[in-house]
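G., the chain you wanted modeled:
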Amino acid sequence: MVVTEMFSATAGSGTQFTVEEVASIHAVVAQLPIAAVVFSLESSVIAANDECRQLLGYDSDDLTGAPVTDLLPDSGSATLQFDPCGRTNPAGGLRRLRRSDGTHVSCWLHLGAGILAGRRVVIACMDLVSPMVHETDLWRTRAERDDLTGLYRRSAFLDHVNRWIADDRTLILAFIDVDDLKHINDTHGHSAGDCVLQAVAHRLLNWLPPGALAGRFAGDEFVLALSAADGSYTIEGLCTGLRDHLCGELVAWRGGSLFLSVSIGAVIGASGEDGAPLVARADEQMYAAKAAAHLARGRRSEAPTR
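Predicted structure as tokens:
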């Protein structure tokens, strides 16, 4: 089993649940003496017991059918890989959850996959922690996350990447630089630059596949890491697709719009390579891409007109 920072389950293809299956799952969950929610492989809530509704402040049917990501204040998700029987050993950890009123509570979250009513589902049980632990968790989150974008800070991002490397996971790391951010700040003010950075972060999070990580390294520099184990991405395809997603639309700003351009470099991690040198290699590729784009623009501007 692999557990990462996000809270979704991926294994096979899911179908609709029948009324009888939902009723059976509800009956099981209602008997649990702890706050619990069951969701499908597509991350839609199937059932939640009264303890869960009380903990999170929802009415009886508010949760049913909702995406489980509605309960998460962060961008992350837990990716579970199933054995042939469709079960996993449960994974646990301290996690913040979003209540119906928008406030957060810290819980010990126990997450595992199993079979209920003959269907493969994911079961999450929640223990509310003490206010002191909750406050500690808030400070830990603030230490890990960038204030402006909500992405991982440099040190937290590298910690996660190094844990992946320690687990012998093959990964792709991309380094993203926002072009001409200084010009935007000088022309429109730093609030415009902040708006562009927030737009990049938002679009990054929308693009990220399950289990991937995104971070902000410096003022105009972003990084992301994703698994390369299944061969879904080539370096060129990743850079092109990511650039198209990030720059496909202008950034709305005070009734107008701001142009967004980025330079991207990406590399595949080498065996035994730590996170810091991996980031440095991706940074070099980013600068090479930026220089090549600058040279291409210069050639186009010098081309004779007809």
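DSSP finds eight helices and eleven strands in the chain.

Shout if anything looks off.
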